[in-house]
Every structure is written in C-alpha cells, then in structure tokens.
C-alpha cells in the first residue's frame, strides 16, 4: 500500500520505518523538505536530526505535506497535537478526501512541565476536531495510548495487552485493524470503542499515562484489559 506518514519526529520515523520494512511504499511528509534535511540540532523532544535517520532508511522518501498526501492511499497523522491541524491543512482536504486518516496526534501542552496538560478534553477531542475539519476523510483514532516502540512492535511487552480504535466508518476501522495486525497486534487485543467521539477517552488517558511514566520511570508499558 502507498502510505503517507505526516511528521518527521520520533513517532513518524518509527511508523515509517516499520511500514517500509513490511513492504509498504512509504513517504514522510514535512513542511519544508530542505529545511528538514539540513537541520543539525535535535528537535524539541530531543530527537536527533532527520538526515541521519534518512541515511539508514533510504527506502522512505521525504516529501512536502501536499506531495505526501497525493502519494498516500492511507495517511497517518503522526504530528504533534499543536501542529496537527496546520499539517493536515497543508496536506490538503482534496488529498485526504475518501482516504483512511489514522490520527495519533495528542492535544498536549508541555509548557508547565510533566505531566503535560490536555488542551482539549471532556466535551471534545482532537480526533473529533480533525474529523469535523476534514469531513470527507475517514478518521480513525488509534496508537495514541502507548510509546512509539510498542506501537509498531507489541511483542516488546510480555503477555496480553490492548490497543484501541475509534472512528465513524466501519470499513476504515477494518483497514486499520489489518494494519495493526501487520505490526503484530493480535485481533483479540484490538478493542473497537465505537465512534470518533470515543477519542475523548483515549486522549484523556494521557494524564494517567504520563503520571505512570513518572512513577514507573519507563515508557515500556501498556494497558491490559482483564475481563471474566
């Protein structure tokens, strides 16, 4: 499949590298290709410059947001929450129409330190805002409740643990489920929460998640739902 990953940070790179390794035709989208390639300093999250990663992942092409959107049969929004809408607008509604748009972005504000503050909560979610802004896209919220390495390799953790999806279109969720199983998620560990409104729940879990990061001193954990 032709896949566009929007965002050159650590999450976008993890997804693009794994998808390319699985045989997909992957493009990473950025605002300014030349600026991204010539950057020499780590980004705001401490991620090393993109150019080094690109040398090790030559099969993944870097493109502008609109070119990436044109390329992708499926689009993954792996941008930071504060930049998500601008990146999607730059990609273009015409390039998102009719396509599955996998949304990982989280509305987090780190200005006050850890844990971050949610800028959207309770009565709305970033996932819902993306769906409203791009009504012809088939938005599915997923992969936003765990660290990047576990997203693409759930076997890093022993035993049973879960991942969630939320979206309005059944076919889109089936497509995303297939992609998740390629990453190694078992069908029975994927829980469909319902409509895109359920993105409120997974986004608000980030308050708990970052508290746990502080307490456990690691990102290597996930939710396991245990039921009778």
Structural overview:
With about 230 residues, the protein is α/β, with parallel strands linked by helices. The protein is built from eleven helices and ten strands. The chain has an eight-stranded mixed beta sheet with strand order 3-2-1-4-5-8-9-10, with helices on both faces. A hairpin with a 7-residue loop joins strand 6 (about 110) and strand 7 (about 115-120). Helix 4 (about 65-70) crosses helix 5 (about 80-90). It is globular and about 50 Å long. The protein starts with a strand and ends in a 12-residue tail after the last helix. The mean pLDDT is about 95.
Please describe the topology of this protein.
Blueprint: E1 2-6, H1 10-21, E2 25-30, H2 33-38, H3 50-56, E3 61-64, H4 65-71, E4 74-77, H5 81-91, H6 93-96, E5 100-103, E6 108-109, E7 117-118, H7 126-133, E8 138-142, H8 148-152, E9 163-167, H9 170-183, E10 190-192, H10 199-204, H11 206-216
Parallel strand pairs: 1-2, 1-4, 2-3, 4-5, 5-8, 9-10
Antiparallel strand pairs: 6-7, 8-9
Helix pairs in contact: 4-5
Q: Can I get a quick summary?
A:
Helices cover 40% and strands 18% of the residues. The protein has helices at residues 10-21, 33-38, 50-56, 65-71, 81-91, 93-96, 126-133, 148-152, 170-183, 199-204, 206-216, and strands at residues 2-6, 25-30, 61-64, 74-77, 100-103, 108-109, 117-118, 138-142, 163-167, 190-192.
Helical amount among residues, as a percent range?
25-40%
Which percent range describes the beta-strand content? 15-25%
Q: Compute the gyration radius: what is it?
A: 17 Å
Distance between the termini: 38 Å
Query: Which structural category do the helix and sheet elements fall into?
Result: alpha/beta
Question: If you average the pLDDT, what whole number results?
Answer: 95
* Number of E-state strands: 10
Main pleated sheet:
8 strands, mixed
Order of helices and strands: EHEHHEHEHHEEEHEHEHEHH
Biggest sheet strand line-up: 3-2-1-4-5-8-9-10
How would you sum up the global shape? globular
Counted by DSSP, the helix tally is 11
Unreliable stretches (pLDDT < 50, length at least 5) are: none
């Amino acid at each position: 499949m032709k896949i566009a990953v929007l965002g050159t940070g650590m999450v976008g790179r993890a997804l693009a590298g794994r998808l390319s390794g699985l045989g997909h035709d992957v493009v990473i989208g950025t605002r300014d290709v030349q600026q991204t390639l010539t950057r020499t300093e780590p980004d705001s999250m401490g991620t090393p410059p993109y150019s080094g990663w690109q040398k090790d992942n030559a099969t993944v092409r870097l493109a502008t947001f609109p070119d990436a959107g044109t390329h992708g049969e499926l689009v993954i929004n792996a941008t930071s929450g504060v930049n998500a809408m601008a990146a999607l607008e730059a990609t273009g509604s015409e390039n998102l129409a009719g396509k599955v748009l996998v949304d990982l972005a989280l509305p987090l504000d780190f200005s006050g330190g850890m844990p971050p503050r949610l800028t959207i909560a309770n009565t709305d979610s970033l996932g819902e805002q993306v769906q409203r802004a791009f009504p012809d896209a088939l938005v599915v919220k997923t992969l936003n409740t765990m660290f990047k390495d576990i997203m693409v390799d759930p076997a890093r953790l022993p035993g049973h643990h879960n991942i969630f999806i939320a979206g309005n279109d059944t076919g889109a969720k089936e497509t995303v489920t297939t992609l998740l199983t390629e990453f190694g998620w078992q069908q029975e560990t994927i829980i469909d929460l319902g409509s895109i409104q359920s993105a409120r729940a997974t986004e608000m879990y980030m308050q708990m998640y970052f508290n746990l990061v502080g307490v456990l001193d690691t990102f290597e954990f996930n939710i396991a739902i245990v039921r009778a």
